[in-house]
Amino acid sequence: MSVRNASPGTRRAAATIAAARVASFPPQIAAGCRVLVLGSVPSVRSLELRQSYAHAHNLFWPFMGELYGAGFDLPYPERIARLNASGVGLWDVLEYCERSGSLDSSIVPASEVPNDIPRLLAEHPSIGAIALNGGKAQQVFARRIAAAIPAVRSAGLAVLALPSTSPANASIPRALKFERWGELLKWAPRPS
Q1: Domains of the chain by start residue, with CATH
Q2: What is the chain's mean pLDDT, rounded?
Q3: Taking the chain, what is the end-to-end CA distance rounded to the nearest angstrom?
Q4: CA geometry: angle 185, 187, 190, nearest 5 deg
C-alpha cells in the first residue's frame, strides 16, 4: 500500500519519519545593529511565506510591535526595517538541518549545520547582545557556535536566553514571556 492510499494515521506517521531539508533565511541586519535575535530555523509557515516568525500565533511580532512598533499590522519589509532602525537584527543559529514539520524537537541533530555567527559578529562589532529565541536556539548556540567566537569578541557579548515565542511553547504565560523579551530594550532602546 502506498502512503498516499494509507489511513490518515499512517500518513501522519510516515510524514513524521520523513525529514525534509530546511534552510534558514539570510541575516536581516543593518549597520549599527546592537542586538541579534537568533531563532533555530524557520517554521513550515515561515518558509511558505518567506518571512521569519510567520505563524499567526507566534508571539515574536506581537512582542516586536509592543517594543518597537514593528507588529503584524505592518507589511513584513516594514517590520524588518523598523527593527533594523531600532538596532535589532534577525537570523537563525542553523544554516540548515533536516526536520519533519515545524517543531524544533523534530530536528535531526546529526543534520545540524550552524550559521557563521562568528563571522557576522566580526562584521558587525556594534552587536553587544545575542538574544536566543527558545531552548533549541540556546542548545545549538552553546554546542555549535559559542566556542567558535573569539574570546576577545565574546568577552563583551551578552547572551540572553529568552523563552520561545513559538505557539508550541505554552508552558510560560504570555506576560512573563513579554517581560523577559523586554530585556532587548537594554541594548536596543525604543525609538523616540
Answers
A1: 19-186 (3.40.470.10)
A2: 91
A3: 63
A4: 40
Q: How many other C-beta atoms lie within 10 A of the C-beta of residue 18?
A: 10
SS3 20: strand
| Cα–Cα distance measured from residue 45 to residue 53, given in angstroms and rounded to the nearest whole number | 8
pLDDT digits 0-9 by tens, 104-144: 899 999 999 999 999 999 999 999 999 999 999 999 999 99
Q: In what order do the strands lie in the sheet with 158-162?
A: 88-92, 35-39, 129-133, 158-162
Q: How far apart are CA 6 and CA 12, in angstroms?
A: 10
Q: Report in angstroms the alpha-carbon separations of 97 from 23, 40, 59, 185.
A: 7, 10, 24, 31
What are the backbone dihedrals phi and psi of residue 37, each rounded to the nearest 5 degrees, phi first? -90, 125
* One-letter amino acid of 13: A
CA 187, CA 157: separation in Å to the nearest integer? 11
d(CA 152, CA 115) in angstroms, rounded, equals: 20
**Alpha-carbon span 156 to 154, nearest angstrom:** 6
Grouping H, G, I as helix, E, B as strand and the rest as coil, residue 113 is strand
Q: What count of other Cβ atoms lies within 10 Å of the Cβ of residue 158? A: 13
pLDDT tops 60 at residue 51? yes
* pTM listed for this prediction: 0.89
